[in-house]
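Entry type: protein chain
Record version: 2
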Amino acid sequence: MKYRKKPVEIEAVLLENDIHSISQALNFVSGMPFDTEISLLDEQAANAAQMTNGLVIPTLEGDVTASFGDYIIKGVQGEFYPCKPDIFSQTYEKVEDGE
């Protein structure tokens, strides 16, 4: 049997190896709005992420490391999971405002 993925809109951020991207990803998974002001906590988290080459995020299966270059996706039930960029580009397309 074959199945087709239902069209569904998701939220996602691209995790890159810089403090602004790491701070944005931290705020994304914590549900807090992104603030362009970088806090000391953000700097400490960014340093830890850079030492481990990624960011540990909570998922339904437990904590998982999203590597730099991965997208962090928020699923339809509010769950988070990392996605490799090649799979992301094959599976998702950007939704323009008003769609």
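Comment: The radius of gyration is 14 Å.
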